[in-house]
Amino acid sequence: MLTGVVFVALAIQLFKHAGLITGGTTGLTFILFYLSDIPYGLILFILNVPFYIFAYKVFGKEFTLKTFACVASLALITEWMPHWVSFGNLNPIFAGLMGGLMAGVGILMLIRHKASLAGVTVLALYLQKTKGWRAGNIQLIIDLAILAVGAAIVSWQQLIISIIGAFALNLVITSNHKTGRYMGM
């Protein structure tokens, strides 16, 4: 699971460096981070608290404990990552596309190990489980709504690149995760 968390943390570092946003709880975290002096990891952890409760009720103790561990790890790693990795020259389009792909692969790794990064992923997995709706499609719709809110704080160029990143992320999940295909969710 740590590999999945590190993939997502590196994707977040790409997005941060390029001034991009993304969808889901991570996107809300970016919006609040850009508007405040509060550390990114702290915002991420706090925003996910209601989703731990929901996850416990819907998916049980094991999933929730793994999810809690993943979110706590991500919150810490995103704070440490700038000390480990920096980008002298980073093309924003590359950052959006590669960040989206890496985040999608990281989230997929977690889902396959009966874990998540809480937030929108928990809701999307729940709706896939109960309604049969594709988790990636649900997540994309919510992501686009959050990106629309983010349009107020980033340039239109950054917004377009952020949307490309969200599509890349959700394409990975939609094309690779189907209920019952794996031992995970």
Shape: globular
Q: What low-confidence regions span 5 or more consecutive residues with pLDDT below 50? A: none
Radius of gyration: 15 Å
Could you describe the largest sheet, including whether it forms a barrel? none
Tell me the strand percentage band.
Answer: under 5%
As an assembly, this protein is single chain
Count of DSSP strands = 0
Number of helical elements: 9
Counting structural domains, the number is 1
- Assign the structural class, choosing from mainly alpha, mainly beta, alpha/beta, alpha+beta, or little secondary structure: mainly alpha
- The separation of the N and C termini measures 14 Å
Following the backbone from N to C, one meets helices and strands in this order, namely HHHHHHHHH
Q: Indicate the mean pLDDT.
A: 90
Helix content: over 70%
Features:
single chain; 185 residues; mainly alpha; globular
Can you walk me through this structure?
- The protein is mainly α and 185 residues long.
- It has one domain (2-176).
- 77% of the residues lie in helices and 0% in strands.
- The chain has 9 helices and no strands.
- The protein has helices spanning 2-18, 24-35, 40-47, 49-59, 61-84, 92-112, 119-131, 135-150, 156-176.
- It is found in: Cell membrane.
- InterPro entries: UPF0750_membrane, YitT.
- Pfam families: YitT_membrane.
